[in-house]
Amino acid sequence: MKLIVTGGAGFIGSAFVRLLLAGKDSLEVIVLDKLTYAGNPDNLAPVAADPRYRFVQGDIADSVAVNELVEETQPDAIVHFAAESHVDRSILSPEPVVRTNLMGTFTLLEAARKYGVKQFLHVSTDEVYGSIPEPHDADESYPLVTSSPYSASKAGSDLLALSYYTTYKMAVCVTRASNNYGPYQFPEKLIPLMIANALEGKSLPVYGDGQQVRDWLYVDDHCRAIRAVLERGRPGEVYNIGGSRSLPNLEVVEKIIAATGRDHSLIKYVTDRPGHDRRYALTSDKITRETGWAPQVEFEAGLAATIEWYRQNTKWIERVRSGAYREYYDQNYANR
Ligand code: NAD
Ligand code: TYD
Predict the structure, then answer these.
(1) pLDDT digits (tens, 9 = 90+) for 124-135
(2) pTM of the prediction?
(3) Which of 141, 197, 202, 241 could crosslink 225 through cysteines, CB 3.0-4.6 Å?
């Protein structure tokens, strides 16, 4: 099997590539990644010498580059992770989000159609369902009601991808996962940001009242689910992927404070995010029923492993928190 993995230098994409290449299967994995601020070749260092792996730097919205690569490599499948993936950045600067998430997905779908790629797996998010009132959980038929440029762009790209099944009979699957956490996550999202700040004794910025609820999924569980959908998913279908662990943000932050031996005084309540979704909740019954997948990593164990990874990888944190990260941090958090 020959795969193009877009966004393979990011947090989840790189975990997926490391997972695939940890096995002995005869595979070819071609990573296509622009190396934005979130893409990091260090994330792929563990597989860099594997002869089954190749890295191509390129933009998924660049149709010439995408067409050339797909024509040259003739992959069996495209697994599409590449995205501008952060809600706060999408609020500060929506243009790259629309370009990559919508135009980039369209460009890949067109190349897949033109060169007859058999399978297309579009990696999406539970955020497309918007805020879910208690006591409901979203299944795959729940309406798409988006709040941020990020979630709106993901909903749009989901529908576009599914239209290629309906219209062109391309074997498209869409996966919608809940909030991921684990090693190698860029420290702009809640868990890695709080861990990195707590380890350094810096303040922990909690938006609003901190009672917003997220469902937490360990990144390797997500990657195993994507592999299951690639192997056993039905074309034209959407699969939710949840971690079965809903927690208010404040409780997550408290757990990080306890595990790093810090004090509650580090918590700083800051102005809420505009359009902040109150609660994400989904059911993953369908993927479990159809593929046998279920999450394996309990939140407390996954969080402990994640904190340990950040403790051990201070050089990685230092490198990704370059000048550009400082700029973003000030833009998002100063005067908040
Ligand atoms: P990330 O921000 O860590 O990585 C994104 C990767 O895409 C980076 O390597 C970046 O360089 C690359 N990229 C960005 N724009 C590109 C472009 N125009 N062309 C080529 N490459 C480009 O993101 P992540 O957290 O690993 O998320 C991966 C996917 O999973 C995204 O599609 C996201 O919407 C989805 N998702 C994420 C989560 C989560 O909690 N992080 C949850 C559910 C779904
Ligand atoms: P985030 O990791 O950005 O994921 P998403 O918005 O895609 O769910 O945020 C998770 C939750 O944590 C969300 O409710 C916003 C909140 N949050 C904070 O309270 N403080 C922060 O500094 C960040 C980054 C997020």
Answers:
(1) 999 999 999 999
(2) 0.99
(3) 241
